[in-house]
Specification:
Blueprint: E1 5-11, H1 20-30, E2 31-44, H2 53-66, H3 74-83, E3 87-93, H4 106-109, H5 115-118, H6 122-137, H7 145-165, E4 168-177
Parallel strand pairs: 1-2
Antiparallel strand pairs: 2-4, 3-4
């Protein structure tokens, strides 16, 4: 029911909603007055340059591979929260505050020589896709599994490169409150 929750949160989920005001508005509707909403959002950073073809390609690959609508900028997230009725308490890119030497995208690119990092390497991705192709042909996994894997790989490669360039963050943190 309306106004029945003290708090709500979203971790890398509302980025999938094509209408940010609408999805934030639903959280707003369900929160009691004074209730809090916190989220991690996918966002383009200030370094993203729409005039740069490589930046545009990476954004398109993240959106296509991740099944996302257009990735928002921080100011668009803030504006959507306010339009939904929230008071924005805090907003910042937590990826920019991460420990030096350990970027958020490290699991997507691997590091060092280990079985865990092999899966993120070019060779590891080829082995995965080849294995899935064979399993698909043998009828062990559903048809389309290889295609889904390729889409996810497209997103992973683009996410890692966009992270390396500093043009994308999966950790734009927002904390908002429904007025009393």
């Amino acid at each position: 029911p309306d106004a029945s929750f003290d708090a709500a949160y979203s971790i890398e989920a509302t980025c999938c909603a094509p209408d940010k005001v609408g999805v934030y508005g639903e959280a707003f509707r369900l929160l009691k007055p004074g209730g809090c909403f916190a989220a991690y959002e996918y966002c383009l950073t200030r370094r993203f340059d729409d005039a740069n073809p490589e930046h545009r390609r990476l954004r398109a690959d993240i959106e296509h591979g991740g099944g996302l609508p257009e990735i928002a900028r921080p100011q668009e997230v803030a504006a959507a929260l306010r339009e939904a009725g929230f008071e924005l308490i805090e907003a910042r890119d937590l990826a920019a505050e991460a420990m030096p030497g350990i970027p958020w995208y490290q699991p997507l690119v691997g590091s060092g020589l280990s079985v865990a990092s092999f899966r993120s390497s070019v060779a590891g991705r080829r082995v995965t896709n080849g294995s899935l192709w064979l399993l698909e042909r043998l009828g062990i996994v559903p048809r389309g599994t290889t295609q889904v894997s390729s889409l996810l790989e497209l997103a992973a490669v683009a996410l890692a490169e966009a992270g390396r360039l500093g043009i994308f963050t999966p950790m734009y943190f927002v904390f908002a409150r429904k007025p009393e």
